[in-house]
Amino acid sequence: MEADFDVYEHEEQTYQDALERLEHELDFGVPLKVLDRQYVPSYDFSRTAAVVVLGQDGLVANTAKYVGDLPVVAVNPDPERIDGVLLPFLAEDARRVVGRVLEGRYKSRYVTLAEVRLNDGQRLKAFNDFFIGAATHVSARYTIRIGGTLEPQSSSGVLVSTGVGSTGWMSSVFNMACGVSRMLGAEIDRRVQLEWGDRRLLWAVREPFLSKTSRTSLVAGVLGEGERVVLESLMPQGGVIFSDGIDSDFLAFNAGTIAEIKTSDQRAQLVVA
Asked: Terminus of the chain with fewer CB atoms < 10 Å: N or C?
């Protein structure tokens, strides 16, 4: 049986049509640079007035953390297929919205980011969440420190989430906790959800393992602004830190690496009108 590629071809054509329409709408007589997503992390946005993103929600998340405080206009290229929680505009809206941005007459919504800093000076930001753990399906070994409490752990990794991310990967942790609680006879059905601009972060340890050398007293919590979670790797190799599900763009988290995660001073600015 041969695969039916018509759906994929239609999706690609829909995207290309939206891109062509968008480039036409954005002809303001000023320089316009079209970037593929792979070049966003290394592009210099210092001379940019506004950033327009055409794609799915994940592209907005992975662009916003690299553009500083520039206004981001997020465009949905295919509203019939893409829900677009972070995509309030269509290609035909672009000229009006970007025009308002260039004139300084726009409204925006600020989104809190998270930041990790390693002891060698490397940094990475997250729009939704960080994953700190092993690159493969083996237990991650590390120490975790929250405030004055330090303990060694073995787990499936640690998640640290922003307000936006609290409805994503982090929500699955609460789903599991609620399900286990019901199995044990406790009627708990509560999910912790933060507002997008909340300056707090959520953190949770995935599947912590109790043994002679690992503990499980630090499992989940909320980091207030200015508070930090500090992790030191005990893994000779294969440790990683990545943000927003992009595991190809990671920081190595191997033995001796210390990662400090907190609320970022930078905020993403999403244009809403």
From this structure: N
